[in-house]
Amino acid sequence: MRIGMVGLGRMGANMVRRLLKGGHECVAHDRSPEAVQAAAAAGARAAQSLGELVSALPAPRAVWLMVPAAIVDSVLAELRPLLQAGDIVIDGGNSHYHDDIRRAEQLRPLGIHCIDVGTSGGVLGFEQGYCLMIGGEADVVASLEPIFATLSPGGRMPAAARPGAAAPGGQAGQQSSSAAMGYLYCGPHGAGHFVKMVHNGIEYGLMAAYAEGLNLLAHADAGLQKAEIDAETTPLADPRLFQYQLDVGAIAELWRHGSIISSRLLDLAAAALAKDSKLQRFGGRVSDSGEGRWTVQAAIEVGVPAYVLSAALYSRFESRGRAEFADKLLSAMRLGFGGHLEKPA
pTM of the entire structure? Predict the structure, then answer.
């Protein structure tokens, strides 16, 4: 198939490379001329503008947007006049699923189809493939299946989905087999990004659990430290119980092999600790790109408890100093009621 890719950043460029490797033709565009040149060097057809990209695609066209959620609307505004009925726009970024529903409604009168694809795989996707969570019109999604299959970790369409092959269990069987390959049609407009939203909320919680647990191991030597004796410091009940100088990096590596908590996130943590056990290149300010917030908001709206995901989101706010005023106020109240002076950092 031939597809246009708009956005050649950390993921878009590697997706183009994976598609080219899988035998597809790609027309690539980005605001950065250097990124376009790199894609062309890999075998893609370069497009210096959206108009050039659209002209290079046969109708009905498929244009994949791999741009930040904040600029999807502006890119669509420029792209929409260039498209015609039957064309397909695929949003593979991390848009809010509310926006998918709105955009589909806006494009429907023009006959332009809008597909939302939650894409997970990050910078490792070229070699390992991308997990794809797909929403939109079922028949339109089916027409793009060779693209999704190539991008997925399986790298090919499941046997049940190949022309002339029977699907065991009917449509449910097809969905089950494609899920095992790493891509899934989740439902109507917004369903793909809804699933990806919750996926990222879970990611926040898992990352926080690893970080908190490994941090506890890093402080297992508290009983070896000289304790201050004053009214502001809670003493260890028994310092003998915390005299372990543990190799946290080695433990993270250990857990990767045969442990029930092994995962790709643990792989990344172990790799970071192997490079620098003190993580000195990091300041500890953890960003959130929106999906964790939206997950918690959705949980509130439907009345589903999400304690861990909420706590993980709030810890990211705290890491960026957003609790500083609250902490100062706590200190002020302690001074007021008990004369407690702040200890130096």
Answer: 0.91
Question: How far is CA 117 from each of CA 23, 30, 123, 136, rounded to the nearest angstrom?
Answer: 21, 19, 17, 9
Told to judge if 196 belongs to the known catalytic residues of this protein, a careful annotator would answer yes
- Catalytic hit among 127, 196, 232, 343: 196
State whether residue 115 is helix, strand or coil. Answer: strand
Query: Does residue 169 carry a pLDDT above 50?
Result: no
* Residue among 25, 52, 137, 203 flagged as catalytic: 203
Alpha-carbon gap, residue 247 to 249, rounded angstroms? 6
Question: Rounded mean pLDDT of 81-107?
Answer: 98
Q: What is the pLDDT of residues 12-43, one digit of tens each?
A: 999 999 999 999 999 999 999 999 999 999 99
> What separation in angstroms does the CA of 289 have from each of 61, 123, 192, 211?
30, 16, 17, 19
Question: In angstroms, what CA-CA distances link 66 with 63, 136, 149, 168?
Answer: 10, 17, 17, 34
The closest alpha carbon to 103, from 72, 132, 129, 134, belongs to 72
160: confidence class by pLDDT, cuts 50, 70, 90? low
| Closest residue by Cα to residue 119 from 61, 189, 47, 65 | 65
pLDDT score at 161:
55
User: What are the distances in angstroms from CA 253 to CA 5, 86, 209, 257, 258?
Assistant: 37, 51, 16, 7, 11
- Note if 275 is an active site residue: no
For the sheet with 2-6, list strands across it.
Answer: 45-46, 25-29, 2-6, 62-65, 88-91, 113-120, 131-135, 183-187
